[in-house]
Specification:
alpha+beta, Jelly Rolls, globular, DNA-binding
Amino acid sequence: MTADLFGAQDDQPWAEHLSAGTVWHHGLAVKHEVQLMTAIADIERQAGFRHMVTPGGFRMSAAMTNCGQFGWVTDQGGYRYAESDPQTGKVWPDIPECFLTLASAAAAQSGYPGFQPDACLINRYEVGSRMSLHQDKNEQDFSAPIVSVSLGLPVQFQFGGLTRKERPARLTLEHGDVIVWGGPDRLRYHGVGALKSGEHRLLGACRINLTFRKAG
DNA sequence: AAGTATCC
DNA sequence: CTGG
């Protein structure tokens, strides 16, 4: 990875090892922020954010889109990965190089070298949007970790156990934070609380989360 | 079912 | 009324 990928203080011992997963706290270097924002805007032009519907018929409060070979979708028929955007019939946009660089570097630093995601779900949270506790389990390959990148407003992240009963740990995720979980922790329940109002210098009253997976 | 409603 |  490049020395400035995670900002000027990258040689600091950043990792905060939880009982499961690794959180990297850092300020993204300005040029990388700009690259990521530009890439998201480019993806949005090809595959717009939309509020998907759960199998139970409820509209999700987070707006979603995807890039990569596979995109996570939900509708009344269930959760699944699709190789094309149901909204346009077109394949999802490619995962931008700057996304891949960040995701693989974060995975490698957390003990998962060679991470090559083929799916990136992009969630956009407005004030009040949330994501209740769930497992990422629609992927074919649980040997690859999950890499999650937070941008914009802070949020309370809930990191639970392998059953829903286990009480989740809570931690605040801020702009530029990256969390990686895999191996025995790959199927841990996780979610985020409702986004509180605020103003981020780049994203305004909004949080965007990039979640990288090996789906296929 | 990654949802809401309700209770405490 | 709220947060879990």
